[in-house]
Design a protein that fits this description.
Layout: H1 6-25, E1 36-43, E2 49-56, H2 60-72, H3 74-84, E3 92-97, H4 100-118, H5 123-129
Parallel strand pairs: 2-3
Antiparallel strand pairs: 1-2
Helix pairs in contact: 1-3
Length: 130
């Protein structure tokens, strides 16, 4: 099975959706921030390992605490994933803190500042967009 096959893409999407539901509704660890998002899940072609990219709306400290909470609840999350998704092997989960969304928002804000300083964007247009 190739890494970018349709089957692998479907498995990645299904695992991502189920992990999102498990984290949102099943894990009761107080370290896990309520605004936690599963950005993507990448399951290896042999279904042994899965990289789970997590984004947290809040501070970087909240993100680190969320990752610690998810690592401690990995057994529960993996067991629930095995119960919900019928796979030959239940992958071992590796949680990775993903800051790409925050980085994109920050870059967009910087571009808007430069555009406003150069006079490309009027303050009236910016106020109507918000």
């Amino acid at each position: 099975m190739r890494k970018n096959s349709i089957k692998n893409t479907r498995i990645n999407m299904e695992v991502q959706r189920e992990l999102s539901e498990i984290i949102r509704g099943g894990v009761k660890d107080p370290r896990i921030h309520p605004m936690t998002t599963v950005v993507s899940a990448e399951v290896t072609p042999d279904l042994k390992y899965c990289k789970v990219y997590i984004s947290v709306l809040g501070s970087e400290e909240a993100g680190k605490e969320t990752i610690k909470g998810l690592k401690s609840a990995e057994g529960y999350i993996r067991r629930e994933l095995a119960r919900r998704v019928n796979l030959r092997n239940t992958p071992q989960l590796q949680f990775i803190f993903d800051q790409s969304i925050e980085y994109g928002v920050n870059m967009s804000h910087l571009i808007d500042q430069v555009a406003k300083a150069d006079g490309i964007i009027d303050e009236d247009e910016e106020a109507s967009e918000e």
